[in-house]
Amino acid sequence: MHGVCFMIEVNNIRTSFSTGFIRRRVVRAVDGVSFQVEEDETLGLVGESGCGKTTLGRSILRLIEPDEGRVVVNGTDITALSRSDLRRFRPRMQMIFQDAYASLNPRMRVRESVAEPLKIHRMGDRAAIDRRVRELVEEVGLNEEHLNRRPYELSGGQNQRVVLARVLALRPEFIVADEPTSALDVSVQAQILNLIRDLGQEYHMSCLYISHDLGVIRAISNRVAVMLEGRIVEIGKTADVLDRPSHPYTRRLVAVPVRETPEPLESPVFPAAPAMVEERPGHWVEETTA
Amino acid sequence: MNGVYIIKRLFTSVAAFCISVTIMFILLRLMPGDYITMYLETIYRYAPPDVVEAFNHVYGLDRPILEQYVLYLLDAFRGNWGYSLIYKVPVLTVIGEKLVWTMVILVPATALATLAGIGIGAYSGWKRGSKTDIALLNGMIFIRAIPSYWLALMILIIFAYYLNLFPLGGYVDTGALITGIDPLDVANHAVLPILTLFLFSVTGTYYLMRSSMLMTAGEDYIVTARAKGLDELTILRKHALKNAMLPMVTMITLECAGMITGSIFVETIFSWPGLGMLTYKALAVRDLPLLQGILLVDTLLVIAANIAADLIYPLVDPRVQVGDNG
């Protein structure tokens, strides 16, 4: 389009859940979302809880099957891949969860957790894998003695480092980080955040960083997308969007102090999805009637 | 795991045993009717008071209840569990003989039920919401809803009476009087009781395994494993199954102990000469020493199962450290 190579192209993705047995109710968690992430870029995704951030993150990786839409990762349309092709493609895109402790198998030692992805994708013989595991563990700021620990013997921050080492083992091109720091203490939060940013640059990873914390988003992302009720209502350069918000919801989001959920807007705000208009170069916002 | 913990655990077990003995002693004496009166009344339609008195004197039943209790408690620890009123031999001898026969049906039934319950439950939980899962779940609920005695009767009527595939009851053919006990013959008699016990026990294991698997399947590390590109079978085998199996340890050990009581109906209906039928007989004629003995064996089994579960747990779950108060 602009001559830029997009790492990720998400096109009009929709995911809905249905509940109820006799009276089926369909909830549209993600309702027609499109965006692109460039190479080495971190796109922040903000929005209050329940707006569909997590569902979007998982839908992009097809951990939840989206109802419709296309996701192109580095030229490969992953929504068109068969299950076995998708499995072979998986190492190239990874996910980090909020609760590091829960995303590690409680029975496995750090060494085994980090080595497993290397083993299943046959990246070298035993000695090579062992060497790589040590390297990775050091890279994320842990040391030899942590290798034989299990998740319950490590702190939250240390566990998140182990998760990071496990993700890096696969050298993914794209990661979805779903609030990886929100369960941590503020001081540890900063360390992990820096680690993700530095390693992201070192490994040339594109990242979709999901968070409800604007401070975190400001620190880590190049561009930011604001999500409301399953749709992206504003997207643009981080500073641009956060300092000069256009959409009423973004304004409200920016106005409240960090960590407080803003009052929900009177719903339904918009009966149908309005078109996006480009306010400034690269800063798109949903049309409002106001 | 340390020695102090084991000693503490043994101490609480002894306390639990004493409490059980006490409760049992009181409850059994609250039951209406006594052995000798009921015995005489069935034979003579009338119980001469002097005979009853003489009998009670011989067995020490005319002494103060508190004295009886203290004597019983002390003797229970000394291994003297009294004489059976029906069999006129030490209670432990009778129980020992019958326990063997109970084990003949109980061990295979429990082993099969555990294996099948874990296997089917794991599959059902892993494929949650699928047609197979729904069918299995409803089938298990159906089986569980049938009272065990009715289930036993139906199995008896269908397989033994109408289809004539297995004997109607007992544990050996009359031919055994001449040829001696033939293991194959015993096995043939044991099939239906084992089937009944199996059906009744498998549902509980299935439920627990299924819900445990449901919880495990939703964990982030399972999603991560999938995101890493592991195939479903490896995820199930390497990540899900072992973690979902943990609650089963407690279940299986307690199941082993609990099945003894569960076999009362089954043994009675199939005339299987085990501990269950013995319980029924002892209860019917108010053979209190024997009844107490059986219940004590049950208590000991439950206590032993609990200790076993506690000791096995740290071996299978690295997070658990027994006796470590942090």
For the structure shown, list the relevant keywords:
heterodimer; A: 290 residues; alpha/beta; Rossmann fold; 8-stranded mixed sheet; 4-stranded antiparallel sheet; 12 strands; B: 326 residues; mainly alpha; MetI-like fold; globular
CATH superfamily of the domain at 104-284 in chain B: MetI-like
Quaternary state of the chains: heterodimer
- Low-pLDDT runs of chain A: none
CATH topology of chain A: Rossmann fold
Distance between the termini of chain B: 13 Å
Coarse shape of chain A: globular
Task: Compute the number of strand runs of chain B.
Answer: 0
Radius of gyration of chain B from the CA trace?
24 Å
- What is the number of helices of chain A? 9
List the helices and strands of chain B in order.
HHHHHHHHHHHHH
Give the second-level CATH assignment, the architecture of the domain at 104-284 in chain B: Orthogonal Bundle
**The CATH top-level class label of chain A:** Alpha Beta
Question: Radius of gyration of chain A, Cα only, in angstroms?
Answer: 20 Å
Q: Which structural class best describes the helix and strand composition of chain A? A: alpha/beta
CATH topology of the domain at 104-284 in chain B: MetI-like fold
Largest interface: A-B, 28 and 19 residues
Shape of chain B: globular
Strand order of the largest sheet of chain A: 6-7-8-3-9-10-12-11
Amount of beta strand of chain B: under 5%
Mean pLDDT of chain A: 85
What features would you describe in this structure?
Chain A has 290 residues and is of the alpha/beta class. Chain A is 32% helix and 27% strand. In chain A, the strands form 2 sheets. Chain A has an 8-stranded mixed sheet with strand order 6-7-8-3-9-10-12-11, sandwiched between helices. Chain A has a 4-stranded antiparallel sheet with strand order 2-1-4-5. Chain A is globular, with a radius of gyration of 20 Å. Chain B has a domain of 181 residues: Orthogonal Bundle (MetI-like fold). Helix content of chain B is 77%, strand content 0%. Chain B contains 13 helices and no strands. In chain B, α6 packs across α9 and α7 crosses α9. At the A-B interface, α2, β6 and α3 of A face α10 and α11 of B.
